[in-house]
Amino acid sequence: MNEYRASKPKIWVALVTVYILWGSTYLAIRVGVQTIPPFLLAAIRFLVAGGLLYGWRRLVKDPSPTRLEWRSAAVVGFFMLVAGNGTLAWAEQRVVSGIAALIVGTSPIWMVLIDAIRPGGRRPNFQTGLGILIGFAGIALLIGPGGFSGNGQSIDPIGLAALVFCAITWSAGSLINRDAKLPESPLMGISMEMLAGGVMLLLLGTLTGEWSRLELAKVSTASLVGLLYLIVFGAMIGFSAYLWLLRVAPTPLVSTYAYVNPLIAIFVGNLLADELLTARILIAALVIVSSVALINTGRSASVKSEGDLLAAHPCGED
After folding, report:
1. Is 318 contained in some domain?
2. Is the pLDDT of residue 245 over 60?
């Protein structure tokens, strides 16, 4: 899609909405996990948002999903929401939001690599390969000797490993989502993935003993506000604006969220949570964002549908 099908002011309002809402969800997660265990936080978020979206789509007469569609939604939900977003929430107990956003923002790098090695996958062209190398250079600059987590201390290695795992599993889920049998309505498909992922996250939280660590009397107002923000603004409003943009705006313009969101997350974390912002973090951010831009533009010629763009949404924001 290369033409505008709505007024440019409306498109830019929606685009800025996606920039800000999805970029700020990383801080909302960090605030939420301060007093709500991470898997339960993610489970509540997706069960509530998914339930509301699913109910809305059924009210507007979307067809009832088939068993095969539910199975596909469960597989995608496991990779993207449980292994991906659930791991992100867990990692943000150890790594601040801005750095988490940068590491997770490398998902397009992992998607290209996974796609290249899987049977029938796409081989990266020169520009895409260059973007991958630049991206890894940015990661090395961020986490190498003397790197900072955003609070003046070295990046927690376990938290870092969890964030890389998040980026990889989200990328794998995105590739699975590309060919998955899901309803024609994107919002119906997303609601099903949220519901399936939410149930699995609830089970995971139960198995890891999070209910015993959840003390309702000690849940802070800030954590509750963070959870509400994730449900309403991150999931429902953010996704609605994004899917509307896919219908009315040029795809390359919509894809710019992947470059802007990590930067928004860094500045929001600095302004609202006093996360340290250094020259090294900024330079690493610009290198990583530039690599993602190279990868996305390098792959644009081979992208066959807007479903690839939808699947490439980073796991910080669903």
Report:
1. no
2. yes
**Domain span at residue 58?**
8-311
Residue 3 inside a domain? The answer is: no
pLDDT over 70 (residue 190): yes
Split at pLDDT 50, 70, 90, the class of 302 is: low
Give a yes or no: residue 239 inside a domain. Answer: yes
Total number of domains constituting the chain: 1
Is the pTM higher than 0.85? yes
Label residue 124 by pLDDT band (50, 70, 90): confident
User: SS3 string of the chain?
Assistant: CCCCCCCHHHHHHHHHHHHHHHHHHHHHHHHHCCCCCHHHHHHHHHHHHHHHHHHHHHHCCCCCCCHHHHHHHHHHHHHHHHHHHHHHHHHCCCCCHHHHHHHHCCHHHHHHHHHHHCCCCCCCCHHHHHHHHHHHHHHHHHHCCCCCCCCCCCCCHHHHHHHHHHHHHHHHHHHHHHHCCCCCCHHHHHHHHHHHHHHHHHHHHHHCCHHHHCCHHHCCHHHHHHHHHHHHHHHHHHHHHHHHHHHHCCHHHHCCHHHHHHHHHHHHHHHHHCCCCCHHHHHHHHHHHHHHHHHHHHHHHHCCCHHHHHHCCCCCCC
